[in-house]
Amino acid sequence: MARRPFLARVADEARYAIDNLSEYATDLAVPTVRLGVTGLARSGKTVFISALIHNLMHGGRLPLFDVASSGRLAKAMLEPQPDDDVPRFDVEAHVAALVDERVWPESTRQVSELRLTIEYESAEFFSRTFGRGRLHLDIVDYPGEWLLDLPLLDKDYREFSQEALATANKANRRNLAVDYLALLAGADPAAEARENTARELSAVYRRYLAACRADEHSLSMLPPGRFLMPGDLEGSPALTFAPLDIGEDAGPFRHGSLAAMMERRFEAYKTHVVRPFFRDHFARLDRQIVLVDALHALNAGPSALADLEAALGEILTAFRPGRASWLFSVLSRRIDRILFAATKADHLNREDHDRLENILARLVERGARHAKFHGADVEVMAIAAVRATREASVKANGDKLPAILGTPLPGEVVDGETYDGETEIALFPGDLPDNLDDLFAGDAVSAPDVRFVRFRPPKLERTAEGVSLSLPHIRLDRALQFLLGDRLA
Amino acid sequence: MTNPKNGASPRRNRKPTAFRIDDRRVQEPLEEAETLERDRAPVAGSPAEAGPRVDQARRFGWGKLFAIGAGGLLSLGFGLAIDALIRDLFTRNDWLGWAGVVLAAMVALGLFGLALREIGSLLRLKRIDELRMTLAEAADGDDEKRARQGLAELIQLYKARPETAAGRRQLREHMREIIDGRDLVTLAERDLLSPLDARARRIVTDSAKRVSVVTAVSPRAIVDLLMVLYENFRLIRRLSDLYGGRPGFLGFLRLFRKVVTHLAVTGGMAAGDSLVSQLLGHGLAARLSARLGEGVVNGLLTARIGIAAIDVCRPAPFVSGRGPTVSDVTAELFRSDPQAKALLEEVENAGGKDA
């Protein structure tokens, strides 16, 4: 924290306070909850939001979401969002993809927002009599990669370079970074600044990050986040930089040198990319759900798991958790409930859900402690926003295996057999470990023998009248109850 | 969070495998009826219950010895008397003798039927107790398997009750999904038991109301004593019927004993939560009129017995919310019901005129 100039921090905080003050005034009419939905790439953010909205709007089966199950939920409808400069979450297209075409919707590329207005009847005398019976739920969807940028706010270019190079030199990444390291060896930080050199360095660095994220490695710790999801800033100088090999004790950079140019661009990245995001979206959240695809990392092996743990640790320190007192809540918003959800629980039989929860609890241990210390409620759950499989048991070799039934996506491979996306199979995905220490020890011997396959979204049953039923899910109702239950009491 | 929960089986290192859907080894979850049968079996012999019963059976007591001896002698005496009677009847007239035999057979058959019914009712009560234990354990340990067993039992218990049809159907739907153990028990409470709970509360309030009014207007102490006794017995019986116990005579005695024990155990707690207000209330009421005060006291006693009986008869513990309390009942009894209030006031006025 020491590095960020004090004045800049005070100015930031003052701006957040003014924003919050005006929002608080509008809240007096109809209360608003801003729910942040985040997670690293392919953790299931889009699916979660689509399923949430679909279930709320179409009266899905949510037995553990009190307001819905007790019949107090009158209506949920989409309304124009409050922020005009943020893309709208295209829920119609995503739901159509899920329900009609049975494909998973396209992934989150940038921050997007959607306002769902819930009309309900309060169960408490006071709010039933004096409240409006309405709640605006603003869902803010943003890539978890961007959160990895937030710690950069407190770093300068030197620190960033040193850390990035140290990471690139780690055993599990050196092979991927070999091009970049070779290029770097030929680049002198003190040399004259050249746009071509900068672009080349940046492009190769970006390729290295992309390679890390590819399926077989599934690494997560890849700042700066916008390099992988540039959005509309693609090609701008603020995104055309890369870490350089700067010695520990190098003096100030010579004016006009490559290092000086890179440093300026790094600062520009912080000013024009990271800080606005933090101010406009992140500092205004009330509730947060962090989706984690632990299964994908398990699939890719121990180094991916360790990397995921590191990335989550970084992300979680970026939150502003805590319970703001009533008085201060006028000025500053705090995230008072954080839910860590291990998504895609439908890839496992229910017998393994507890183990999945334990693995996730271990992954987010540091962040959860931080949040709890500041007074926020934290919960860990294994969920599936859309349940793509059914459960079954298979008798094989005198053993009863807990298996799942589903249709693998076209191109998925199990035991050398490639599936076409139409055949349904029963899969026993392997046993998750009980002992987490072995799992996180990181050696390949103790790695669990598991295989998770991506399944197609479920086929929705239709009633005789042709009305499609709601999307099946696992514990989505419990997640909703935790995140929103108290605001709809 | 870090310990594996009770329900989880120990981890084995089995290889991931894919099977074709038409493979004969692949089984979809069993149909519901079979699930019920399968799930019910292990509960009966649950180890937690087996322990204390063995101890009880083994214990030796002088009283027991006496009871066995006396009972045996009495039944021998009865047998002899009946035998002698029938012989007498035969010596007098043949058809009289045969009529005696037929009557004796009816007595025997009736006795047999009664015994069967008693045993049935005792078993039913025991089953409810076991069920409550299962559900409590499932809720405490968040144990999904036990919760499923308990829910299947619960559905079975209320199968013959058409008014629970909607609740049972909802519960069956919940059981098809993946829901954690504690949540399942909560859902059972909300969907299946809450209508019964509402009726139970109604029954307790009605009884308490009747007792307090009758006490306030009764001319003789013995009348209201009998009334209180009768009303309380009836209350326990009705509550047990409501929750599916349907006790016979012996079952009722057992239930009554449990209610009294429960009352003794929870009495301290109940005294703590509302002692001040009750004492204040009694004092005021008693000052207004001795009879009205008695009525209030008897009404409170009935309410307290009713609450204890609900705890004893209900096949599940109160998990999500607290159960009804004495103050819930009294609140309704003395404040929100204008009829009772008016009646009490009338009594009060009449008493004033008499004096």
From TrEMBL, chain A:
Superkingdom of this protein's organism: Bacteria
InterPro entries reported in the protein's UniProt record: YcjX-like
UniProt cross-references to Pfam families, sorted A to Z: DUF463
PANTHER family membership: ATPASE, ATPASE-RELATED
Protein name (record): YcjX family protein
Originating species: Stappia sediminis
Lineage: Bacteria, Pseudomonadati, Pseudomonadota, Alphaproteobacteria, Hyphomicrobiales
From TrEMBL, chain B:
Domain of life: Bacteria
Membrane topology: Multi-pass membrane protein
Annotated TM spans: 65-86, 98-116
GO CC annotations on file: plasma membrane
Span list, region Disordered: 1-52
Subcellular location as annotated: Cell inner membrane
Keywords of the record: Cell inner membrane, Cell membrane, Membrane, Transmembrane, Transmembrane helix
Family from the record: Belongs to the UPF0283 family.
Family matches, as NCBIfam families: hyp_HI0043
PANTHER family: UPF0283 MEMBRANE PROTEIN YCJF (PTHR39342)
Identification of the protein by name: TIGR01620 family protein
Native organism taxonomy: Bacteria, Pseudomonadati, Pseudomonadota, Alphaproteobacteria, Hyphomicrobiales
